[in-house]
Design the sequence.
């Protein structure tokens, strides 16, 4: 694993982040390891639920949202 200093990371962030995907980078602060920058691997699994599908399944609101906001603002709820 290649090591770089914090100063190098600040100077060349974009290039270093792109190169970290292949091999990973050890970040050093005054010669001491402080962080590791490595390739992100998304977690496997079911993923997030389809929010649009859930929203479409909700019952319609019988009034205009402007009226709801007005009543909430005026303390009528």
Sequence:
């Amino acid at each position: 694993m290649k090591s770089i200093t914090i100063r190098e990371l600040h100077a060349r962030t974009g290039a270093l982040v792109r190169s970290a995907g292949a091999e990973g980078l050890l970040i050093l602060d005054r010669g001491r390891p402080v962080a590791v920058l490595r390739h992100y691997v998304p977690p496997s699994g079911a993923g997030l639920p389809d929010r649009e599908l859930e929203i479409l399944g909700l019952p319609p609101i019988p009034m205009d949202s402007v009226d709801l906001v007005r009543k909430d603002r005026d303390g009528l709820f």
Q: What stands out?
A: The helical segments are 6-11, 13-23, 51-56, 65-73. The CA atoms of residues 45 and 51 lie 17 Å apart.
